[in-house]
Design goal:
single chain; alpha/beta; Rossmann fold; Hypothetical protein af1432; 2 domains; about 50% helix; binds fe (ii) ion
Amino acid sequence: MQAVGTVQSKPIPGALAATPWLEAGKTGKLLLIDAHEINRRLLKGMLRSAGNYEFLEAASGAAALRILEQNSIDLIIVDLMLPDMFGPDLCRRVKASPCNSLLPILIITNTQGVEHEVLGIEAGADEYLVKPLHPSVLRARVRALLRNKSAIDSLDQAETILFALAQAVEARDSYTAEHCQRLATYSVALGVALGLSRPELVALYRGGFLHDIGKVSIPDSILHGQQHLTPEEWRIMQQHTIRGEEICRPMKSLAPVLPIIRSHHEKWDGSGYPDGLAGENIPLLARIMQIVDIFDALITERTYKPAFSLEKATTVLEEEVAKGWRDPELVSLFISLLNRNMLESTASLIDPDWPELSTMLRSLQNMHAQIEGIGHPVIETVPG
Ligand SMILES: [Fe+2]
């Protein structure tokens, strides 16, 4: 079976032109998957009057998967019984891809029976309609699914912008490349060793990239002159924790990351900033991020010091515990992971295919590709 080419819907006399102002749910690229051309034509006929849709068509599951590899689709409408695979199996394969995990799928079938509906929904389908289709019901379902997709895309874009901002900060402030990636990896390793929940591990992973996003508001003269800051400049530098929290607060999905951003410079004895929290009043995820941040600063080369050996970095961490600055139990656990070479292997238990991470990882991939294209400016500084 071959994929059928793109069919652009024709303007309907009297209908709204395709403009950016068209209501969400009334535009979108739909992939129709059905073995029978007549069925696909019927679907297009019912939907054309409902919005300004672009249609892509496939007569088999395999053809549909090929189309998905090359196109950004807003909604899939699929027949339950395809010649080469069962509709729910196609659903599962589509949703297993991080890029398409939130892509809405509507299954249509001739087959009555709640068991198929349950199979479809469990495989990730968002809606299930039994023929004969009522055009107004089909149109309403399609509009609702596309409205949801539009809302998800908006969130996706907002999150992408924040991670782009965080990468811009790393490019401007970073001592070495991949600092944020290492923080994400090390903090997740410590989180796994502590038996933290999946949402907490996801927060740590994202926090590795976002914890210093507030530095975007710090002037270069302060950001790059941290060894010789005046008291007023130091006060401004410390504001990066609060500014970072303010930048990320509007995104509800980032709520679990906010305590990391705000509190990663607190100290166990209460002498840190911005709130002077002490002991277990410092959020656990922030204490984790702080330890791995310091560790990474120690083992990487800076303008003012060479890269420390693991032994020397461990000694410095223990000295900071003795001074009362760091959580003794966390530092001890981190050092034991380090001594057993378990940082990378423990962190690998986090699954990059988790939907919560898919937007972020996609954004990072895109940005890295672009940065490689234009060159990556690396500026050496002291950690803030
Ligand atoms: Fe910081």
